[in-house]
From TrEMBL:
PROSITE patterns: UCH_DOMAIN (PS52048), ULD (PS52049). Keywords: Hydrolase, Protease, Thiol protease, Ubl conjugation pathway. GO terms for molecular function: cysteine-type deubiquitinase activity. The active site is at C89, H165. Belongs to the peptidase C12 family. PANTHER family: UBIQUITIN CARBOXYL-TERMINAL HYDROLASE (PTHR10589), UBIQUITIN CARBOXYL-TERMINAL HYDROLASE ISOZYME L5 (PTHR10589:SF16). It comes from Euphydryas editha (Edith's checkerspot). It catalyses: Thiol-dependent hydrolysis of ester, thioester, amide, peptide and isopeptide bonds formed by the C-terminal Gly of ubiquitin (a 76-residue protein attached to proteins as an intracellular targeting signal). This is Ubiquitin carboxyl-terminal hydrolase. The record marks D180 as: Important for enzyme activity. The record marks Q83 as: Transition state stabilizer. One of its GO terms (cellular component) is cytoplasm. Catalytic component of the polycomb repressive deubiquitinase (PR-DUB) complex, a complex that specifically mediates deubiquitination of histone H2A monoubiquitinated at 'Lys-119' (H2AK118ub1). Mediates bisymmetric organization of the PR-DUB complex and is involved in association with nucleosomes to mediate deubiquitination. Does not deubiquitinate monoubiquitinated histone H2B. Required to maintain the transcriptionally repressive state of homeotic genes throughout development. The PR-DUB complex has weak or no activity toward 'Lys-48'- and 'Lys-63'-linked polyubiquitin chains.
């Protein structure tokens, strides 16, 4: 794999991924975090349609793929790009899902449309090189990074440092595929029956993967690529209003349902506002404020007493841990 170049690490967060997708120019989709994968809980019921899943896990070197990778002519229809740049796996995972998504809700926009049309005839490595050399995609990716207060030399990474990786799961032409840019091709997890929900197929596969790790390992994250919820709710309101006009009357149930949908729209608006605020905080440079605050505390002779109190609390906390 080539050097990291100027691709930064980005946080595994639904707000970050939703903002990233919007920065690409994609419309009609958002990302939601999944808190459970237990079967029978109906965890996807309020999120449908689900177009794909993004799974973050602790990367184990030399881990063999669960099934043989696809290298046949299916690659002419499946957009699979091999990852050739470090730190790009988050963007690569979500772009792989978007470029394989065929749903009327999803508008991938002009930038990703051009990328797909230009590189679809390439082999996976050339697709990966095309993606990584896109200035627009790289700029969008790097715009999601946290503001760094200090620069550290990354030439000598710690040997024991954990590495994390994103992969995507998506149904394509009646089969479930895993899109992992570190492989040589998509992993085919088998057919999806005509009346079977693809999410019922993928759940045990992800659970099996999680169970490979040691007990107590919690460094996993699962996010769903879904249709824009506000768009879905507005569409449902329009349908209710249309039915009301056809019937010539509005029932109490219809009025109640419209109020509920409007509340859900307000919730989505508030959530998107929160995402934008959180992104602004991530990008903001707090260092000048911190330095000014420390100077003021030092001038008023409050800095050292605060330092001593913090040191004392840290020592007490350490002692409690040792007793336990």
């Amino acid at each position: 794999m080539e050097s990291a170049g100027d691709w930064c690490l980005i946080e595994s967060d639904p707000g970050v991924f939703t903002q990233l997708i919007k920065t690409f120019g994609v419309k009609g989709v958002q990302v939601e975090e999944m808190w459970s994968m237990d079967e029978g809980e109906g965890i996807f019921d309020n999120l449908r349609p689900v177009h794909g899943l993004i799974f973050l896990f602790k990367y184990l070197q030399h881990e063999e793929p669960p099934l043989p990778v696809v290298k046949d002519n299916r690659l002419e229809k499946i957009y699979f790009a091999k990852q050739v740049i470090n730190n790009a796996c988050a963007t690569q995972a979500v772009i792989s899902l978007l470029l394989n998504c065929n749903h009327p809700d999803v508008d991938i926009g002009p930038e990703l449309t051009k990328l797909k049309e230009f590189s679809m005839s390439f082999d996976p490595k050339m697709r990966g090189l095309t993606l990584s050399n896109s200035q627009t995609i790289r700029s969008a990716h790097n715009s999601m990074s946290n503001q760094t207060l200090f620069e550290f030399d990354q030439k000598m990474p710690a040997k024991d440092e954990d590495a994390y990786h994103f992969v995507g799961y998506i149904p394509i032409d009646g089969r479930l595929y895993e899109l992992d840019g570190l492989r040589d091709g998509p992993i085919d997890h088998g057919p999806i029956a005509p009346k079977q929900d693809w999410l019922d197929v993928v759940q045990p596969i992800i659970m099996k993967r999680i169970n490979v790790y040691t007990e107590g390992e919690i460094h996993f994250n699962l996010m769903a690529l879904i249709s824009d919820r506000k768009m879905i709710y507005e569409r449902q309101i329009e349908e209710l209003m249309r039915q009301t006009q056809m019937l010539g009357m509005e029932t109490d149930e219809t009025e109640k349902e419209i109020r509920r949908l409007k509340m859900l729209i307000e919730y989505e608006d508030a959530k998107m506002l929160r995402y934008r605020q959180e992104m602004a905080r991530r990008r903001h440079n707090y260092l000048p404020f911190i330095i000014t605050l420390l100077k003021i505390l030092a001038e008023e002779k409050k800095l050292m007493p605060l330092y001593e109190k913090a040191k004392e609390r840290a020592l007490k906390k350490g002692q409690k841990k040792l007793k336990v």
